[in-house]
Design goal:
This protein has one domain (about 10-180): 3-Layer(aba) Sandwich (Rossmann fold), CATH 3.40.50.1950. The protein is built from eight helices and seven strands; from the N terminus they run αβαβαβααβααβββα. The chain has helices at about 10, 30-40, 60-65, 90-100, 105-110, 125-130, 130-145, 170-180, and strands at about 15-25, 45-50, 70, 120, 150, 155, 160-165. Strand 6 and strand 7 (about 160-165) form a beta hairpin. The radius of gyration is 16 Å and the shape is globular.
Length: about 190
């Protein structure tokens, strides 16, 4: 798909709930295939994934594409020579809060209508989460952009630390979408 450009209108299907699922450079991205597969168990749901380069260190595009879901990356929007240094990682959270649009994921978020229900599930190391800039970024995302921020939660993290910073459990993320859009299971 790297030769094809992302065009949102081509991804829309009348009568469906469309979930744009953005994965970023957090180890919690390993849960992406589980979330996508579970969402596909519901009637009239279409999922499209936008993955930052950093998120693909934690899962394979093919794990999602085999379920019939498109995975879009920067190469679909930006020329192959464009480089980025990039749940919602601390890096992406800072970009969203600052209005930076240097990859497909942040550009899409910037282009969303302010009425689009948008949920952010932070996931990062405890020290990153406790950093003063993180609370300011979360404030901007909540109060200025009016995004719904869910989590993070406290538990043993992938880095070995125990504390707050883990992404909300993947099943709870699915349930958030199910509740928001009143989805019904396929029969």
């Amino acid at each position: 798909m790297s030769n094809v450009s992302f065009v949102a209108e081509k991804e829309r299907e009348q009568g469906f709930t469309h979930v744009l699922f953005i994965t970023t450079g957090s180890v919690a991205s390993v849960k992406a295939p589980l979330i996508v597969q579970e969402l596909l168990n519901y009637k009239k749901v279409k999922v499209t994934v936008v993955a930052t380069k950093a998120s693909l260190a934690f899962y394979s595009k093919s794990d999602v594409e085999t379920a019939g879901v498109s995975v879009w990356v920067d190469d679909n929007e930006w020329s192959p020579g464009y480089k980025i240094v990039a749940p919602c990682s601390a890096n992406t959270l800072a970009k969203i809060a600052s209005g930076i649009c240097d990859n497909l994921a942040t550009s899409l978020l910037r282009a969303l209508a302010s009425t689009t229900p948008t949920y952010v599930f932070p996931a990062m190391n405890t020290l990153m989460y406790e950093h003063p800039l993180t609370s300011e970024h979360l404030r901007i995302v909540r109060e200025v952009l009016r995004y719904n921020v869910v989590g993070p939660i406290g538990k043993a993290l992938a880095c070995g630390d125990i504390g707050i910073g883990a992404m909300t459990e993947w099943g709870d993320i699915v349930q958030t979408v199910v509740d928001r859009f009143q989805l019904q299971l396929n029969e």
